[in-house]
Every structure is written in C-alpha cells, then in structure tokens.
Amino acid sequence: MTHPTPAPWFKQKWLLFVLSVPLASVILSSIMVTVAVVGKDSLVNDNYYKYGLEINQTIEQDKLAQQLNLAPLISINSDGDVQLQVKSEQLPAQPYLTLKLVHPTLGDQDIVVRLLPTESSYTGQVPAGLTGRWYLDLYAYDESWRVREQTTLPTELFELKP
Predict the structure, then answer these.
(1) Whole-angstrom Cα distance, residue 121 to residue 74?
(2) Quick count: other Cβ atoms within 10 Å of Cβ 28?
(3) Mean of the pLDDT values across residues 97-103?
(4) What pTM value is reported for the model?
C-alpha cells in the first residue's frame, strides 16, 4: 500500500485559514495607524486659551445686536445669490456687512462674503450649489455686532434672530 504524499506546508488549507486572521488584523491595524497619523481633526482648536477669551467679545457683539433690535431677512438661492434686508431704526448706515457661512464640522469649508449695499438691501455672492446645514454669522463692517443663526441651504427669505 502506498500512502499519498502530503502537499507541502504552504499549500495546506488549514494553515492558510489559521494565518488569515492574524494577517487581516495586521493589515487593518496598519490602515488605522496611517489614518490616525495622516488624518487631522479640524474641530480641535490649538489655541484654546485665546479662543476662550474671544467668547466674551462675541457675547458683547450679540448683546449689541439685541439692543439695536436687528431683524435681518436673508435669502440664499442655489445659484449662490445672497439677498439681505436689515430692519432696524437704530442701525447707522453700513458701508458693507460681512456674512460668514460656517460649516458645522469642516472648518476648511467656511466662507466669508462681503455684502454690498443696494437701494433697499445688501447683496453678495457665495459659491453655487451649497447645500446642507450651515451657521450664518452676520457682522457689521467694524464687527461691533453679530447675528448668528443656523439654517439649511439653499434657503428662502427667513429672519436671523439676534
């Protein structure tokens, strides 16, 4: 009787099955380490102390906006056209207003737009096709007051509340 000769060790099915689990864990852990080292969390602020001091300034800006009884109405369409109407009897004439569109999670997608006055409103242009949730910060030209609101773009005429 002759016995069949066994296959070499590297052709054994059970060996490949047993080694597949540690090999997969080494590959996946290498991918995780690469993502952790190369990837950057854009939400973390490096200078938290300075940011903490700036909070008091933004509180003062919000209080001034409330004192001025600002009631801005804003519209941003899918083409990127911005229309802003400011209703306030106490607000002095502004040479321009600054609109900051702040993305809630990706800081590199924030947009700053200067809104120029027309006869009855302020107009500006943002990149076309903006969608999703955004924070809208409206500032005076000298950044003495601020109005902040959250919205989903594109949006029709709605009121920013100080």
Answers:
(1) 10
(2) 10
(3) 93
(4) 0.66
